[in-house]
């Protein structure tokens, strides 16, 4: 299979320097009167999700730095398109912004008719963070590592099952990419959200899943599920004992959840610049960055141009993957 990789590792090298450089400039070139009232940060996922957690950290610090209220407004549904469409159609004045993700700005475009254009309907502000996922199995599955799991899959002729948070989610695409790279067949049993997916594997109704490390780490650490590998190119401090899938026998495998800050298209560039500078300043603070890193989150806080380029590469990557695997995501 053609090697499909994101550009996050490249961005990290640039971001490490830009985080330091951006902080002293956070007050430079400020708009003369923005903000002078409440700002809404729309999260197109439910409260309690990884996106929601990062959004609330960002909102709290923006409120302190900008000296205006910043409230998180959860608008989940339809694969994150409801909240994203709301922001796309909002007034481009800097008072409504979006914390988007893979689903809303890269994956959905490959199989959905969206009510917005994920590129032209938004002003990119910053790629905020990326989060790896974990390949996990029920403890009753006779596989203690990736090689044993793949051998079991090859011997079972498509009888091994996996679940995901739903059709077209990162967990679904990640398992299909794994199956394609390994040359095995797996049966997809989609769940209604990540909580049900985890519960179905813990209960033994389904054999395995790939889910974000933020949700996976607690159930791996307490033994309810067996972690086999993570989906990033580097090991995670949240589960340092787990190898990457590349180390475990699938070279080049990488799957990351990512979160990015957007404003409606037409938002003045001085406001975009200030929001980016404040975002970089916030995530350069060890008090913000270090707890996220311990939980497996890779902080990026890249520039608007880096986000625009990265998003286009992700649209191409997921589009190619879906076409190559001939996935039917309209179920």
Tell me what the structure shows.
- By secondary structure, the chain is α/β, with parallel strands linked by helices.
- The chain has two domains: 8-131 and 255-325, D-Maltodextrin-Binding Protein, domain 2; 132-230, Periplasmic binding protein-like II (D-Maltodextrin-Binding Protein, domain 2).
- It contains eleven helices and ten strands.
- It has helices spanning 8-22, 50-66, 81-88, 102-107, 146-156, 170-182, 194-202, 213-221, 269-284, 286-294, 304-325, and strands at residues 39-43, 70-74, 96-101, 122-137, 161-163, 187-188, 208-212, 226-230, 256-264, 298-299.
- Strands 1, 2, 3, 4, 5, 6, 7, 8, 9 and 10 form a ten-stranded mixed beta sheet that branches.
- Helix 2 (50-66) links the parallel strand 1 (39-43) and strand 2 (70-74).
- Helix 1 crosses helix 9 (269-284), helix 2 (50-66) crosses helix 9 and helix 6 packs across helix 11.
- It is globular.
Explain the layout of strands and helices.
Layout: H1 8-22, E1 39-43, H2 50-66, E2 70-74, H3 81-88, E3 96-101, H4 102-107, E4 122-137, H5 146-156, E5 161-163, H6 170-182, E6 187-188, H7 194-202, E7 208-212, H8 213-221, E8 226-230, E9 256-264, H9 269-284, H10 286-294, E10 298-299, H11 304-325
Parallel strand pairs: 1-2, 1-3, 5-6, 5-7
Antiparallel strand pairs: 3-9, 4-7, 4-8, 4-9, 4-10
Helix pairs in contact: 1-9, 2-9, 6-11
The rounded Rg comes to 20 Å
CATH fold-type name of the largest domain: D-Maltodextrin-Binding Protein, domain 2
Share of helix, binned: 40-55%
- Number of domain units: 2
Query: Element order, helices and strands?
Result: HEHEHEHEHEHEHEHEEHHEH
Q: What's the CATH superfamily of the largest domain, by name?
A: Bordetella uptake gene, domain 1
- Contiguous uncertain segments of 5+ residues: 1-6, 20-31
Shape: globular
């Amino acid at each position: 299979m053609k090697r499909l990789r994101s550009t996050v590792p490249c961005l990290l090298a640039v971001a490490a320097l830009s985080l330091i450089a951006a902080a002293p400039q956070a007050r430079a070139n400020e708009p003369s009167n923005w903000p002078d009232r409440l700002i809404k940060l729309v999260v197109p996922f439910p409260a309690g999700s990884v996106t929601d957690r990062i959004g609330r950290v960002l909102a709290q610090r923006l409120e302190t730095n900008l000296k205006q209220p910043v409230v998180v407004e959860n608008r989940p549904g339809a694969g994150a398109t409801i909240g994203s469409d709301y922001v796309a159609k909002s007034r481009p004045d800097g008072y409504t912004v979006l914390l988007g993700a893979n689903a809303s700005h890269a994956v959905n475009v490959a199989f959905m008719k969206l009510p917005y254009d994920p590129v032209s309907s938004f002003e990119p502000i910053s790629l905020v963070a990326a989060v790896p996922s974990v390949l996990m199995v029920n403890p009753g599955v006779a596989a203690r590592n990736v090689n044993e799991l793949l051998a079991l899959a090859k011997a079972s002729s498509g009888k091994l099952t996996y679940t995901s948070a739903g059709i077209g989610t990162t967990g679904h695409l990640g398992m299909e990419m794994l199956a394609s790279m390994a040359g095995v067949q797996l049966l997809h049993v989609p769940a209604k959200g990540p909580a049900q997916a985890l519960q179905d594997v813990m209960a033994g109704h389904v054999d395995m899943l790939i889910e974000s490390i933020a949700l996976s780490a607690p159930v791996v650490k307490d033994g309810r599920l067996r972690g086999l590998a993570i989906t990033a190119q580097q090991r995670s401090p949240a589960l340092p004992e787990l190898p990457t899938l590349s180390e475990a026998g699938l070279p080049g495998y990488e799957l990351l959840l990512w979160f990015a800050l957007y404003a409606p298209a037409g938002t003045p560039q001085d406001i975009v610049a200030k929001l980016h500078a404040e975002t970089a300043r916030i995530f350069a603070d060890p008090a913000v960055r270090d707890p996220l890193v311990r939980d497996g989150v890779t902080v990026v806080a890249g520039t608007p141009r880096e986000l625009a380029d990265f998003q286009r590469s992700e649209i191409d990557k997921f589009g190619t993957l879906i076409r190559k695997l001939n996935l039917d995501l309209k179920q």
